[in-house]
Design a protein that fits this description.
Elements (H helix, E strand, L loop, with lengths): L3 H4 L10 H5 L21 H12 L5 H15 L5 H14 L5 H10 L12 E4 L7 H24 L19 H4 L5 E3 L6 E3 L9 E7 L2 E9 L3 E2 L2 H14 L18 H11 L3 H12 L3 E5 L26 H9 L17 E6 L4 E5 L6 H13 L18 E2 L6 H19 L1 E8 L4 H6 L4 H17 L5 E6 L8 E4 L4 H10 L14 H5 L9 H23 L5 H11 L9 H4 L1 H6 L4 E5 L18 E7 L4 E8 L7 H19 L8
Parallel strand pairs: 4-7, 7-8, 12-14, 14-15
Antiparallel strand pairs: 1-9, 2-3, 4-5, 5-6, 5-10, 8-9, 11-16, 12-13, 15-16
Helix pairs in contact: 3-4, 5-20, 7-9, 16-17, 16-19, 16-23, 17-19
Length: 671
Amino acid sequence: NITPSDTGWRDSLLSIPKKWLSTAESVDEFGFPCTLPKIPVPPLEETMANYIRAIEAFTPPAKLECAKQLVKKFAAPDGIGPKCHQYLMEKREAEDNWAYNYWLNDMYMDVRLPLPINSNPGMPMPPVRFTTVHDVARFAALLLVGIMKHKELLDSGNLPIDRAGSREKNQPLCMAQYYRPLGSCRIPGVERDSQHLAERGTRPDEHVIVVCRNQMYCVYLKTSQSGKISETELASNILHVLSDAPCLATKPPLVGILTAEERTRWATNRNLLLENEVNQNSLMLIERALCMLCIDEPLPNTFNAYTFTGASPTGYLVGDRDDTNMLHEMIHGGGSAYNSANRWFDKVLQIIICTDGTWGINYEHSFSEGDAIVNVIEKIYKNLDEKQTACNSVTSDPPPERIPWVITPQMDERIRQATIAVDKAIGDFDLYVYRYRGYGKNFIKKCKCSPDAFLQLMLQLSYFKLYGHLVATYESASTRRFLLGRVDCIRAAHNEALEWARAMCQGEGANVPLESEGEEDDERKVKFSIYNKDKLKELFRIACNRQTEIMVQNILGQGIDIPLLGLREASKEFNNGQVHELFSHETFQTANIFLMSTSQVATKSDAFMGYGAVTPRGYGCSYNPHPDDITFCIGAFFSCEDTNTTRFAKSLQESLDMMKDLMKDEAEPLK
């Protein structure tokens, strides 16, 4: 009998007849094999051709020609390309996912940048109303009860399988990402980080770390003696923390802020902490906890957005804090004077609750993609039982234990240095949560467009309007159709997008000004276009079709970035430990400096997820399309003179308005 692992699934899943699927040895109720296929290794010639096509839009002709020659040399029958490809094919046969460790190390474990801003996303959830400190404790307890219920579901093996919504609808998706976060922790290394992965299965004791005013406490959700802790008792324990933390005789050391530093420096400092047995035990408790629960103080309105005239108002306003302020809190905590030491950024899941009703999460990205984390948190949020009894002030016996630290003068100095570095990084972080209210995905669907493809092209147009050219753009594409699949990269800066963006901007120079930069003069410019609306629509359709084609290739395991990474690493095996010149050449390096790093993070609630740029000269931009509006979270750095999140948001607004004008006559009522 033929099984998925035997075939290699080299061909597109769309080319596999349903009849073949239904006659496989073991299939599910939808006719799909019960065993997930392994991620393929696309043909070498296909990967090389798609690589050249992917870089054409932003590579100068001379450098492009050089890249073509390097590809020709690499892929020649007597080159090392075929050997590398065969090496990966054999690796695929031997491993569950040939690409996983290559990708994990390249994307996360080898990166030395600090986790907050550069790696860990933050996500504010819809704010809640707290009247007293008892409300805070009760809400926190309800969330922890939800976490424990989810852990029990995982341990039971009854977690429902996610299924694809299109392109072989109902195909099962890999669920491994759901099982990694709880109880796990990233561990810093001097050269390469590692992961502490919690063991699968039920444990007699389960605890979380609750941190308030930089003091950490161990709070049990389950013990071998008492069993599962009730919601009322949990609320009482958290109330004890809220009462105890402000009354400490001495301020606790800001140990948590060490986790916000550059990874090699944090690894060195962690090793110093481990020299003391007390610190060893404290680190073990933190790293093996199910999650962190961080109880914060509100950030001041100095973290609010720098907006522009005509921009939509903030979606949430808690006191005088806006959406951007809330996202700052979730991403980095606001600095040493606020909540950045009230964190442990290595923990996969940190639930953050502010005393003013703002709440959300921060998560360490190497264990899981955003959709798995968002699905769990939104499910817990939806299931909160508003009819639970209010907590009383009686604490369990014994009360939550403070996490102790032994801090030497040397370590105290390291903490002081860390506060300086972290505060400087936060001061450089340019962030803007922009809500576009002109239309949402309903209008886009009426235009017969994929909302994701449409919005990716809007990002390309917005960048082109500002700078007059396109740049390497990253959009994560899930590969969960395959065993242990994570993501590949949808590259949106292609020739079709470039031709359309040029046409849309015909007669306009680069740079969308702000009001303070002479907009009135700009409005007096004579603008013209050699393209009529029909031609612009035609170019848009071509670009949209190409964007959709690239997306489908990626989710079906036929992208280019994962195969190129594998070929790069494999080339070391045949080139004396050095990568082939194709991968060290300037063109390849530029193609992998993503000046736009993007992702769609869809939510059922009015939550939104954001992160920083992945390069000092770039933008990070997530987007969340709702039926009638779209939320963008745009990140950059003030130290770069060429980037500005407010200007980019304004360019987005103009681009989206242009498309509404272009497509309004074509939009048809949804059937």
